[in-house]
Write a structure and sequence with these properties.
The complex is a heterodimer of chains A (about 200) and B (about 200). With about 200 residues, chain A is mostly beta strands. Chain A has 3 helices and 13 strands, in the order αβββαββββββαββββ. Chain A has one domain. Chain B is built from 2 helices and 12 strands; from the N terminus they run H-E-E-E-H-E-E-E-E-E-E-E-E-E. In chain B, the strands form 3 sheets. In chain B, strands 2-1-12-7-6 form a 5-stranded antiparallel beta sheet, with no helix packed on it. In chain B, strand 1 and strand 2 form a beta hairpin. The chains are: A mainly beta (about 200), B mainly beta (about 200).
Chain lengths: ~200, ~200
């Protein structure tokens, strides 16, 4: 029914819908790779659940996804990202993977820009902390609503906490896999932009 | 410093350096249906800056917060000439005392369709009883709880704040005189899709 409505109404204007895009930059010594992420179903659920969640500060106060977020890397180079994917295919280190040695998150609102909101998740592994082929990266965000069993979306399918929400992978053609230079730090910058699309 | 870096990166992408795949982008599309007696109109919303801010702020939040629907509402207005702008924070000519006459009843729900091309549909419904509001209906606003403090340079929004607007001035609906003998029901659906 929704599709029918969309087809019957006027053409979208410049700010009819919000686009959320993820761009990932990997830096390891001389090596720099940039690609666009692929969102999995849990990523949509996280945002959708927030928008209709009725929790407030006087009741069971909600917590933001960056309260307990992480980033992991893996070696898989053949499995394309699917909507139902809930973890990396071949994480480096014990599942869900070797955590970064340091990380930070920040966001900026550019009121007059065509890219009004830019959020940056940055994770760094010290030299020698991880090794092998880097073929996939995953962004994990905290799913507070799952943790308190108040899932506002019917059929919501969260399975872990924090939840795997987005993936960058060589199998999707988003970047070229490479062997990690263990003599250099590995830094992954995951920028999420909210734009008028 | 990362801001300029990010903008440059986005520019590269928009210029086609990096290809876009089917699930690269999430899109939030709002479709609004207004029913008042025999009158039924449907149009697409326009997001304002605060709408992007509250979602973006949520994603970087590292502490407790009020969820978007913890204090939401919908208001109507009579303006038919002012197009929606990014900086808009309220309806132009609300019907009733600012921010407007609140609906008599409202509900919010959402469904996840894991195998659909429109995986998530969120539905906000507001109803005004017959005779509660009158005049020309030319604009509608969806107000959500604002969590703007997670972003630097964010605006300080009232709570709840205007997140999205449907307006005759944008060409999204044809303004009409409210039939005060009938209830007025507005269904605001937000679809999260892979664009």
């Amino acid at each position: 029914m929704i599709k029918t409505e969309e087809n019957n109404i006027e053409k979208a204007s410049v700010d009819d819908f919000i686009g959320i895009r993820g761009t990932v930059k990997i830096e390891n010594g001389e090596h720099i790779a940039i690609g666009r992420n692929h969102w999995v179903g849990q990523g949509l659920e996280l945002i959708g659940a927030y928008l209709i969640q009725t929790i407030n500060a006087s009741g069971q106060t909600a917590q933001g996804p960056a309260t307990n977020w992480n980033m992991y890397i893996g070696s898989n180079t053949t499995a394309v990202t699917t909507v139902s994917m809930a973890s990396l295919v071949s994480p480096i280190g014990t599942s869900p993977g070797t955590a970064p040695n340091s990380k930070s998150v920040s966001g900026v609102y550019h009121a007059t820009s065509t890219t009004p909101v830019v959020i940056s998740y940055v994770a760094t592994w010290n030299a020698g902390a991880v090794s092998g082929t880097l073929g996939e990266v995953g962004l994990y965000l905290f799913d507070y609503y799952y943790s308190i069993n108040q899932k506002p979306l019917t059929n919501e399918a969260y399975a872990s906490n924090p939840a795997f929400v987005s993936r960058l992978s060589a199998a999707d053609g988003s970047f070229t896999a490479f062997t990690i230079n263990t003599a250099a730090a590995l830094t992954v910058t995951w920028n999420i932009s909210l734009v008028y699309a | 410093m990362h801001n300029y870096e990010t903008i440059n990166m986005i520019t590269e992408i928009n210029n086609g350096i990096i290809s876009k795949n089917i699930s690269d982008t999430l899109s939030l599309i709002g479709i609004v249906t207004i029913e008042n007696g025999e009158n039924k109109v449907t149009g697409r919303n326009h997001w304002v800056g605060q709408g992007l801010e509250t979602i973006g702020s949520y994603l970087v939040y590292t502490s407790t917060l009020n969820a978007a629907s913890s204090n939401w509402s919908m208001y109507i207005g009579s303006d038919t000439t002012t197009q929606t702008t990014v900086s808009m924070t309220s309806l132009v000519s609300p019907i009733g005392i600012l921010p407007g006459t609140a609906p008599n009843s409202k509900s919010v729900s959402g469904t996840y369709y894991s195998t659909s091309t429109t995986p998530i549909v969120l539905t906000f419904i507001a109803t005004w009883n017959a005779g509660t509001v009158s005049g020309i209906l030319g604009e509608v606003g969806l107000y959500l709880t604002m969590n703007t403090s997670g972003l630097s340079s964010g605006v300080s929004a009232s709570n709840p704040g205007l997140a999205s607007r449907l307006s005759a001035a944008d060409g999204s609906l044809t303004a009409f005189a409210i039939n005060t003998a009938a209830t007025l029901t507005i269904t605001w659906k937000i679809n999260l899709t892979y664009a």
